[in-house]
Amino acid sequence: MIRGGRSYVSSSPAFSNDAKRLLVCTGNTVSIFSTATGLQITSLEGHVALVTSVIVVPASSPGSRILCYCWTASLDGTIRYWDFSVPELMKTVDIRMPIFSMVIPSLLRSPADSERTQGLYAYISTENIRKSEKPKSLSGQLRKCNLTKSSLIGGVILKETLRPEFISVCPSGRFFGISSKRKLIIWKVPQTDSDQVALKKIVLHHTKDFTVLAFHQSQRIVAAGDVTGRILIWRGFGNKTFSNSHGLMDGNSQNYDDVRPGVRGDDDAESCSTWHWHPTEVNVLAFSSDGEYLYSGGREGVLVVWQLDTGKKKFLPRIGSPLLYFVDSPDPTLASISCADNQIHLLKMPSLGIMKSISGIKLPFSAPEALKGICGRFAFDKAGLVALRTEAYGIQCYSLLDDRGISEVYVCERNHQPADEVTVVVTLMALSSDGSVMSTVDVRLPEQDIGGLICLKFWTSAPENKQFTLSTVIYEPHRDSHVSSIAFRPNRLMAVTTSKGGDFKIWVCKDETQQKNELGQSSGWVCHAVGAYKKKPMTAAAFSADGSVLAVAAETVITLWDPDRNVLVAVLGDTFSVGLKFYL
């Protein structure tokens, strides 16, 4: 059995310390990809449920030996420590509660601060498996785990929420926080952490539900996006609550003015400003590594780069799918962006050019109800290549043997717009046995019962890269009837299409006898023959393994044809009668 295709975007990925590898949560494993080639190198296998977090242990200082260790957390209730250069499992911590998110702030702190702690601590978002049966019972818990002792700190629940929430951590390791409905809850990590120490927290409020938050690299700034597309930026958060006993915080004197523009009520922040560009909820927020810019994204498939001081913005448009995660790498010229269509794009910074893409199987397109009866889902060739219908009028070619996306064809070009009404539906696709030719059928839907168009298209590809180019377009191949099936003849440039209108057509490529014309271009596909049986709807077709027999389903019977002469040779399931028609 050949299996392929997992989600690459269920959780945020992580770069190795040298930025040459990208660690991606893929189901129960962590797949490690080369950032130079976009190909998978190895994987970390051991979890028995979805991996939800991967955290690379940073190098202790610039120029030190490149570390290849990471922590992972999973819904199987375990936290695991790996040497991913081998790869080898080094340690397992079993907390017996599904983990939805994890951060380890002390890994991000300076060596001097880390030495003050009495162990390595993780803060995890878990689900209370003993929750009440009441409809509004709180199932999410934010808890603390001592990784050094491999134990969950009993009795310490930092916060209970309606459901497990994603945890964000400050790049300096000083703060972490969650968004819960219309609140941001931020904790300060103590300089000397232990099992008994209590954590201070603040709460920032809003009038709409939050969706995502991000901390600034070095300054006391936190940004959060909401369901309406707005971005709120608080500066100087926690100046009162998190100050030390001398009234100082980070070496700055405590001058807390009562005039705090944009801050709601008694929220602990100096100011709050609002930016608005996104038309729908914000899914992505991240500060640049130098702290000068803020990246944001959402359903519209556009990455927005905001200049933090001025609010000016620039864009990376036409990504083609809603954005989910943005991750900076230790290399300032490299970043990644994860998209809802199961792709991770590696970006060249700061120009925002897409260098490589790591493609998983894309989500299927849901056809309108009127066309569901004639829509095919996928097609195979003998080499393990599968063609699948995707959103945005596309066909994805995916290699099951290599478990990666090879190429993509857009039957009808369009930019991604989340509110667009579907006007074209790809109903069928088929691959030749060697994968060199693909055929598709797309239907342009009528507007107010007027218009509508059915197109049969043939595509050809080069053997080495499977990049398909359009060869032939045939409008209304079966008059006004929908195409019900497509099949290619083995070892020949011949295909058959059937129609519920009562006929089938055999198509041949002129290159079969005339490989290339004088200009070296494909000479296209033409109709070679038409056949019918008692005016019955033709619903499916297939060639025999050697291509000598064509079988066509006509309602409750199977008709067998000689495809070269278009002659009926037998009928299975019925008695031959005079209703046969065929045309040459």
UniProtKB/TrEMBL annotation:
This is WD repeat-containing protein 75 second beta-propeller domain-containing protein. WD repeats lie at residues 275-316. It is found in: Nucleus, Nucleolus. Keywords: Nucleus, Repeat, Ribosome biogenesis, rRNA processing, WD repeat. Gene3D superfamilies: YVTN repeat-like/Quinoprotein amine dehydrogenase. The lineage of its organism: Eukaryota, Viridiplantae, Streptophyta, Embryophyta, Tracheophyta. Residues 394-569 form the WD repeat-containing protein 75 second beta-propeller domain. Its main location: nucleus. It comes from the Eukaryota.
